[in-house]
Amino acid sequence: MPAPRTVLLTGAAGGMGTMMRELLPGYGYALRLLDMDPIEGEPDAITADLADKDALREAVRGVDAIIHLAGISLEAPFEEILRANVEGTYNLYEAAREAGVGRIVFASSSHAVGFTPCPVGDDPLIPIDVPRRPDTFYGLSKSFGEDLGSYYWDKHGIETVAIRIGSCFPEPRSVRMLSIWLSPADGARLLHAALTAEGVGYRVVYGSSANTRLWWDLSSARALGYEPQDDSEPYAARLIAEQGELEPGSADYEYLGGGFCTDPPMWRR
Questions:
Q1: Residue 138 a catalytic site member
Q2: Of 35, 206, 219, 259, which is most buried, counting CB atoms within 10 Å of its CB?
Q3: Looking at domain 6-261, which of 1.10.760.10, 3.40.50.720, 3.40.50.80, 3.90.660.20 is its CATH number?
Q4: Which of 27, 29, 93, 138 is labelled catalytic?
């Protein structure tokens, strides 16, 4: 696939979308922005809901690839997740199929495998082929999105790189985030690799920086050409002093999904 230049970025007003729309043009991309909320300072951005099929058809027309970050990004009632994350993602793939878009980079989540036990001590890193074990309706919707990408590759030839993103913030916010943090700069590097790697077909990768306390195996992401440059370790001393070390078996250090795996959930990443 030729290196794409015009890329539709959905969820462009969100947290990660805001950071990526600042960083990705440095890789040579012309971004077409879409969000359900207006984007200040971006008069050409498309303001539309993922349920608006006509708006999606217009948004994908003429783009080389799509980065799909839009949707509900944490747990919510099932009906809301269904509309935004399941039906909305399907609507986008259908618009891409009709327009002949060749590749979609889908923002999946570690919550698609949230009930995977965290590695402790000398345990090996978690491989990408662990069974999906979603921890929430949100995680379930990301599992659906991964399968949707697989289906559209096999059925219609649309390539998908599904990235199971940990936590993408300027700095890690908790001790457990030291293991799953994706710096904004590494996020842009990973998206660039996912957009430009040749012959990806359908691929699932983990999305994090090269953290000293890393929990999962990044080899499938590195196979795309991703070379993470950042590490959460410089933030470790301060966070541990404030919050304490993680204790094996605790809500934050039993499963990848952390507090989302508790009943009732603790709503912590």
A1: yes
A2: 206
A3: 3.40.50.720
A4: 138
